[in-house]
């Protein structure tokens, strides 16, 4: 099974039942997970935000964290580096991305060593998918 780069927005539906869960589950059968180093922080933040908004129970949050821990044991994680930060700095100037999204996309570029052709980038964020596609990734919405 090939790797794809997964944005946090595509991984949350694998931990919490959402409208995107069936698509994310289908993609998880097709592609192994490559992720950015801070993806767990983003996911935990999403779980906490869902609890505050009443979209997830505290027990559901615990279950989501357990699922996240299981996923972490098998994914490929891109660590922070100076070249990655420099890439993210260029991306925020080129695309209308939030800082965290620019770091996600920069991590994807580091992961594939800049060779985006044939590489899959999975996200639930349309702006991030658009930027990934412009960089040559096969952008897949989860």
Outline the structure in words.
This protein is an alpha/beta fold and 142 residues long. It has one domain: 5'-nuclease (Rossmann fold, 3-Layer(aba) Sandwich). Helices cover 58% and strands 14% of the residues. It is built from seven helices and five strands, in the order βααβααβααβαβ. α1 (8-15) crosses α2 (21-30). The protein is globular.
Labels describing this entry:
globular; Rossmann fold
- What name does the CATH topology carry? Rossmann fold
Overall pLDDT confidence: 97
Biggest β-sheet: strands ordered side by side in the sheet = 3-2-1-4-5
According to CATH, the homologous superfamily is: 5'-nuclease
Total beta-strand segments: 5
Based on secondary structure, the structural category is: alpha/beta
Spell the H/E element sequence.
EHHEHHEHHEHE
The CATH class label is Alpha Beta
- The helical percent reads 55-70%
Number of domains: 1
CATH architecture: 3-Layer(aba) Sandwich
Helix tally equals 7
Taking pLDDT < 50 over at least 5 consecutive residues as the criterion, the unreliable ranges are none
> What is the rounded Rg?
14 Å
């Amino acid at each position: 099974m090939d790797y794809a780069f997964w944005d946090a927005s595509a991984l949350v539906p694998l931990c919490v039942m959402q409208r995107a869960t069936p698509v994310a589950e289908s993609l998880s059968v097709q592609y192994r997970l490559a992720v950015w180093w801070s993806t767990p922080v983003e996911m935990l933040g999403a779980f906490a935000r869902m609890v505050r908004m009443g979209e997830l129970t505290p027990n559901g949050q615990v279950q989501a964290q357990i699922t996240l821990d299981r996923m972490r044991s098998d994914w490929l994680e891109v660590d922070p580096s100076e070249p990655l930060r420099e890439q993210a700095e260029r991306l925020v100037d080129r695309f209308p991305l939030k800082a965290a999204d620019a770091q996600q996309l920069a991590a994807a570029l580091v992961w594939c060593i800049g060779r985006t052709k044939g590489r899959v980038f999975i996200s639930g964020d349309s702006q991030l998918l658009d930027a990934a596609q412009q960089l040559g990734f096969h952008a897949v919405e989860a």
